[in-house]
C-alpha cells in the first residue's frame, strides 16, 4: 500500500482537508520546475508530520503518540488554475496535487522545542499536530509512513522563477527549494 499525504489548507477563512499522491513529494534540496500549464504559482509554508503507527478515530489527547518527526514544508499551488476550478465548481486537484507540489525539509524527532501548541518555528498553524491527526483519523485510517501537513493561517503568496524558499528553525536552515 502506498503512503497517503493528507493536508490541512487554508481557504476562504476555513480549514479544509485535501489529499495528495506520493508523486507530489519534493525531497532534499532539489529545485521545483514551475509547471508550464500555470502562470501563477503560489506557496504556503507548512509543517509536516510523519505518522509512526496505525490509527483510526484517535482522540486528540492520544494523538501525540502517532507521529515521530516533524519537518518544515512548502506547499505549492497553481493559483490561476485554482481560481478557474472554484469559479466552475470543479475540484482543485490539478491546482494542488501536481508532481513535486510539496517540498519537505529536514525532519526533527519529536518532541521538539520548535513546536509549541499551534506554533511552529514562530508561525501560527491552522491546527495543532494533535488536532490534525484526530481530524484525519476520523475520515480514514492513518498508517506508519503517511504524512500529514498543516499550513499556516494565511493565503498563498506568489513565487517567481529563480526565487529561493528557505525555512530556518532556531537559526539552522531546514528547508531550501529554488524555483526554476
Walkthrough of the structure:
The strands form three sheets. Strands 1, 2, 3, 4, 5, 6, 7, 11 and 12 form a nine-stranded mixed β-sheet that branches. The chain has a three-stranded antiparallel β-sheet with strand order 8-9-10, with no helix packed on it. A two-stranded antiparallel sheet has the order 13-14. It is mainly beta. It is built from three helices and 14 strands. It has one domain (5-173): Fumarylacetoacetate hydrolase, domain 2 (Alpha-Beta Complex), CATH 3.90.850.10. It is globular and about 45 Å long. It has helices spanning 79-88, 93-96, 129-139; strands spanning 5-11, 14-20, 25-26, 41-51, 67-78, 102-104, 108-109, 115-116, 119-120, 123-124, 147-151, 157-158, 164-169, 172-178. It starts with a strand and ends with a strand. The longest helix is centred in the C-terminal third of the chain and has 11 residues, at 129-139.
Amino acid at each position: 500500500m502506498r503512503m497517503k499525504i493528507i493536508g490541512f489548507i487554508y481557504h476562504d477563512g476555513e480549514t479544509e482537508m485535501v489529499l495528495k499522491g506520493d508523486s507530489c513529494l519534493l525531497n532534499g534540496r532539489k529545485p521545483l520546475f514551475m509547471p508550464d500549464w500555470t502562470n501563477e504559482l503560489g506557496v504556503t509554508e507548512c509543517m509536516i508530520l510523519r505518522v509512526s503507527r496505525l490509527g483510526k478515530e484517535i482522540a486528540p489527547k492520544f494523538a501525540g503518540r502517532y507521529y515521530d518527526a516533524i519537518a518544515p514544508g512548502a506547499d505549492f499551488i497553481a493559483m490561476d488554475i485554482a481560481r478557474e476550478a472554484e469559479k466552475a465548481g470543479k475540484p482543485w486537484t490539478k491546482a494542488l496535487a501536481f508532481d513535486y507540489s510539496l517540498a519537505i525539509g529536514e525532519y526533527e524527532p519529536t518532541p521538539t522545542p520548535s513546536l509549541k501548541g499551534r506554533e511552529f518555528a514562530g508561525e501560527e498553524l491552522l491546527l495543532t499536530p494533535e488536532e490534525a491527526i484526530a481530524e484525519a483519523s476520523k475520515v480514514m485510517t492513518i498508517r506508519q509512513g503517511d504524512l500529514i501537513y498543516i499550513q499556516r493561517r494565511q493565503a498563498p503568496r506568489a513565487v517567481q522563477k529563480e526565487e529561493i524558499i528557505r525555512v530556518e528553525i532556531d537559526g539552522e536552515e531546514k528547508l531550501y527549494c529554488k524555483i526554476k
